[in-house]
Amino acid sequence: MKTMTNVDIYAISHELNEFLEGARVDKSFQPNKETVVMRFHKAGFGRVDLVMEAGKRIHKSQYPLPNPTKPPSFPMLLRKRLKGANLLSIKQYNFDRIVEITLKKDQIYTIVVELFSKGNIILLDEDKNIIMPLKRKSWSNRDISAKREYAYPPENGINPIKITEEELKLLFANSKEDIIRTLAKSGLGSLYAEEIILRTNDFRTNEDLSLIDKKSEASKLSDDELKSIHLAIQSIFKPLANGEIKPEIVSGDKEDVLPLELLKYKDYKHNYFDSFNEACDEFYSKAVKNTITDEQEKAWNKKISKFEKRLEFQEETLKGFKDTIEKSHKKGELIYSNYQKIQSLINVIENAKANDYSYQEIDKILKKAKKEGMDEAEIIKSVDKMGNIIINIENTDININSKISIPENANIYYEKAKKAKRKIDGANIAIENTKKQLEDILNKKDNAMSSIMLPQKRVKKELKWYEKLRWFVSSTGILVIGGRDANSNENIVKKYLDNNDIYMHADIHGAPSIAIKLNGKELDENTIKESAIFAASFSSAWSDGYSTQDVYWVTPEQVSKSPESGEYVAKGSFIIRGRRNHVRGAKLRIAVGIVDYEGKRLMAGPEEAMKSLTDNYIVIKPGYTKKEAMAKSILSKINEDNIIELDDIVRVLPTGKCDFDNKKY
What is the pLDDT of residues 397-444, one digit of tens each? Predict the structure, then answer.
């Protein structure tokens, strides 16, 4: 994956600073070892994800990355220190591959994103001391570890936007390398070094001047050549200084993402974007998708390889058993068909042994006799020191024990064949099992690869007014809404609760205000029962693990924000006066599904209400599974038309852990 250049970082940091200034930090995540995502809330826009990959990239992203179930320590620290902080600025440091993100909460914090080498992401306090780095590193002149003062790497390079002709002259005069390497090593990299030479020679062609060889010694440039190079640098980078960037992704022999148009890529295909952030998001997210797919492919192939190797071994073993049967039968038959020859040979050996010859001496005598054409020695190959004979008949070696009879020798081979035959059935069963396991894992791979959770572009949705709250539509068609926090609880009563509506609340501390929007309709028992389940399920009773919860309802005139003398009513809380109507033991159960209500949308509410609108839903109850893990599972079950995202489901679930209701799953 391409690493952002100094030029890329200049363009991206200016865009980010303009867009995110004043935004509020929400959560932070760490999808993988090198990547941290900070989620911001920007007034009037909503959610913004900032992706920072150490040593590689920083940009806004509309492609949410899958996060680990258990967050690592670094994003947890960011959540603790920075949630609710306001962003003051995002700036590039010294036209280097370093970005500084400054935030204010209880103090001024700085996040340093190092995009050189293998990179790092470091949280600093207001005195520029390191609170925690993503990765602890140490060099002779820098120590990136907690409680150390942050030290910037040594300055190395030029700022092409500001460089003067004199500064350029000094750069080349002090160089011991050629022109192209001098430019590349000055912080511009090979791409922009090549572009500078191309532009320089383009100018010189127009002026009818000799071209510059990029491999010429830098220190030997003439004044007019230096002037041409300086003009080329100005022509390339002046648009960057003026904010006149032209973000694009080019494709040809390779793909690249750029904030500027370059001569080097004039013959490439150009895909332009409204912002450099958008271009980077498309470019890097595509690379991430390919990486995820490749990693998944490798992981599955490793599992498959285990079964393939096992099958290969089992099939070789089976072939060995069959070869053993065939060869052992043949040897037994050869022993019987050459009975007299073998017996004569054994007799010769026994007579020699009786005359005090050793087996080594007998071996030598027989081999000599074989050469001389002795009939009894015709089939001999060798005799070992224990008296075991190897004979060769029809190009087949046969071991003969001279101390036992010929039928016993033949029987050894027949028994060996029988033993191998008995093992064949077991080998065939093992092979069939492995083939089935291999087929199963290949099918699992196909399914997993086809449904792999690649980052999908998050398109900002225009929400209906009630979707910004908790909501459902009852089985009798009545809209019921509830607060999500103190602010929306206030709005439920002050903005949305009309005179002929019903106010409902779970009889427990930590529950949303619920408004049953009758709109002139009669209140019915089904709506009361379903609204009670809704009010109970989205209360603190869910996270406390209750299975039921009492709920009450009243009319709007009984709901007041005016306390008695000496009383205080917190934001989002209200005083209820008069008689309360109770619903005892409302069950904590929520159905989540996609309904067609003013268009297709995600709804979370009582099962009876959901049933009246769709069959595509699941039911959950208080449990032990984390919300994010449940959301992934729910998404795979109900997202038939791919109209919702993981975050949509997380947003509608009750606060706390949950599990599927076995009645439905």
Answer: 999 998 889 999 999 999 999 999 999 999 999 999 999 999 999 988
| Residue 523 per-residue DSSP state | P
Residue 588 sits at the vertex; the CA angle it makes with 585 and 591, to the nearest 5 degrees, is 140
Tokens of 8: 């890329």
β-sheet with 269-272: strand ranges across: 255-258, 248-251, 269-272
Does residue 326 surpass a pLDDT of 60? Answer: yes
Q: What are phi and psi of 292, to 5 degrees?
A: -60, -45
Q: CA 144, CA 137: separation in Å to the nearest integer? A: 5
- Three-state SS annotation for 143-190: EECCCCECCCCCCCCCCCCCCCHHHHHHHHHCCCCEHHHHHHHHHHHH
What one-character DSSP code corresponds to residue 664?
T
Which residues neighbour 440 within 8 Å (Cβ) at sequence distance 6 or greater? Answer: none
Characterize 240-271 residue by residue with b for buried, 16 or more Cβ atoms within 10 angstroms of its Cβ, and e for exposed: beeeebebbbbeeeeebbbbbbbebbeebeee
Residue pair 587/536 in contact by the 8 Å Cβ criterion: yes
CA distance linking residue 12 with residue 91, whole number of Å: 9
Do the beta carbons of residue 533 and residue 539 sit within 8 Å?
no
Nearest-angstrom CA–CA distance, 392 and 399: 9
Helices (H) and strands (E) in the chain, counts: 16, 29
Question: Rounded CA gap, 389 and 342, in Å?
Answer: 10
Q: Which residues contact 270 (CB under 8 A, 6 or more apart)?
A: 248, 249, 250, 261
DSSP H helices, 54-176, are 73-82, 165-173
Cα 656 to the center of its chain, rounded Å: 25
Measured torsion, CA atoms of residues 153, 157, 160, 166, in degrees rounded to the nearest 10: 130
Structure tokens at 258: 């750029």
DSSP lists the bridge partners of residue 605 as 591
Alpha-carbon torsion angle 328, 329, 330, 333, nearest 10: 120
Strands 269-272 and 255-258, sheet pairing: unpaired
What would the pLDDT profile of 515-567 be if each residue is shown by its tens digit?
999 999 999 999 999 999 999 999 999 999 999 999 999 999 999 987 776 67
Burial class (CB in 10 A: 0-12, 13-18, 19+), 576: middle
> How many residues belong to the chain?
665
Tell how strand 479-482 and strand 396-401 pair up. unpaired
Helix H segments across 220-275? Answer: 223-241
Which amino acid is it at 331?
A: K
Question: Which residues fall within 8 angstroms of residue 174, CB to CB, at 6 or more apart?
Answer: 219
Look up residue 294 and give its two tokens. Answer: 């490749």
Give pTM, 2 decimals. Answer: 0.63
The neighbour count for residue 323, using CB atoms within 10 Å, is 11
Give the pairing of strands 248-251 and 269-272: antiparallel
End-to-end C-alpha distance for the chain, whole angstroms: 42
